[in-house]
Amino acid sequence: MKNTNKLNPLQNMVTKPKRLETRLIIWVTGLCVLQALLFGALVYQLTAQSLHNHIGDKALAVASSIATRADVINALKIPSDLTAINMQIEDLRQLVGADFIVVGDENALRIVHPDEDKIGKKMVGGDSQAALKGERYISVAHGSLGESIRGKVPVYAGNNEIVGVVSVGFLVQSIDPLILSRSSEILIWGLILVGLSILAAIYIGQRVRNAIFGLQPDEIARLFSEQDAILNTVRSGIIALDPDGKVRKLNQRACEILDKPTSIINQNLSLNDLLPEHAEFLLRNQRRKIVGFELFAADKRLILSRFSLQVQGQADGILLSMRPSDELEYLSQQLTKVQAFAELLRVQTHDYSNKLNLIGALVQMGKNEQAIEIIGQESQGSQAQIHNLLERIQDPVLAGLLVGKYHKARELNVALELNPDSLLGVIARKDMLERVVSILGNLIDNAIEAAIRSSNSRSAKVRVTVDETSQTLLFDVEDTGFGLGSDHDVIFTPQYSSKSGAEHGIGLYLVKTNLDSCGGTLEIGESDLLGARLSVYIPK
């Protein structure tokens, strides 16, 4: 059996145009041609109808005029010599341009007709009876000369007796040339319109091509599919937003991280639907870049970055990227902290090297007592602090945090001490420990900064107290700064900071979000060190 599913030869000859401008030219031109044809047909119909009405009115007016002529009425009453009346009516017919003027008697027998051979014969067309009953009208009928538009008027004698009928007609075939002559003008304007549409289509095609960087529709579709696939392949959650917070693009990974169904990707969403606790903060100061910002959302710790979207040099929204803290971003952040701590140790090593050189010089000079005194001064304070800390803080992570903060404060000429009454056991819950480290670390950093700012008027000092009860963890951080003022609500907003620089303003906000996530509270008061005292209570 032969295969009949062969391509039509025309399909091999006619290929589908792929270039956008070619398609636009064909589509716009085809549309304009179709519109021109429809418009032309409509105008032709309206023109023909208008001419028919005009001709009909003219025929009726001429017929009415003839029906009142005395010689016509007399001829109908006494049809003796009809030659004179036929000549007069023929002159009138030629004058008004009618194709025929017929006068019939009360029996519809012709007494006047352009063709003398048809005089005395019955009028044809079947449209004279109503006129013989007294009606005036316009009709279209097929008579002896062909199809025509006729004006029919009855002829009355002096006593209102109908004695005949006048029929004035214009052949349809004589009207068609008038319609065609007017339609030719329409055709010319239609061709001009099609030409202009082709030029407009070329211009539009070029503008559209430039606007889409010369890409063709199939290339745009492929590029969109590739970008969508790439966006859903990356392991980071991506959220693209309009400046007002409306979600422009959302990938599947962001839905997974925020515990949202992927069906919301194609819905109209705002940032409040995804991150209601942090939407206000993330939509403020959109030009400010945020990298590695820790927050709690969807019952998990996230590392979030925010970047301003730039389109042709202008800000056009923001881009959020996020990953859970236990993934690469969190490890990278920890590496950054380790690098910072290594730099701090390098500085301290350089400082100790200078002091060792001083001690060596004193020994060589025989000043042993002075060398021993310097050694004692150097080791007494730090060793006592570290020994006291390790005895009272049993959790190794918190102990390491406080040791690091101690060395950082010492490098910045700030005295950091642990309250002798402090006592804290091991924190068993890993998620609780992570939040405590973030809370305490940020509070100590803020206290060190506050103490430094007031160091010109008093000795810079920070005191840390850690304690616990059977149900609560307690932390106090005090400093010698200038305090936090009376408006305690504003200090927990993301943009609040008493320091300068884009990297500041989120420390206390992180403290608040961590406290909210674990149900803790924070109290602000005045310290006997003349600065602020921040007390944290976290239920176990």
Automatic annotation (TrEMBL):
Q: Where is the signal peptide?
A: none
EC id: 2.7.13.3
Q: Which domain of life is it from?
A: Bacteria
Q: What residues does the Histidine kinase domain cover?
A: 326-540
Major place of residence: membrane
Does this entry carry the keyword Aminoacyl-tRNA synthetase?
A: no
GO molecular function terms listed in the Swiss-Prot or TrEMBL record? protein histidine kinase activity
Q: Which PROSITE patterns match?
A: HIS_KIN
Q: Which reaction is the catalytic activity of this chain? A: ATP + protein L-histidine = ADP + protein N-phospho-L-histidine
Has keyword Kinase? yes
Which keywords does UniProt give here? ATP-binding, Cell membrane, Kinase, Membrane, Nucleotide-binding, Phosphoprotein, Transferase, Transmembrane, Transmembrane helix, Two-component regulatory system
Q: Where in the cell is it found?
A: Cell membrane
What protein name applies here?
Answer: histidine kinase
Species of provenance? Pseudoalteromonas arctica
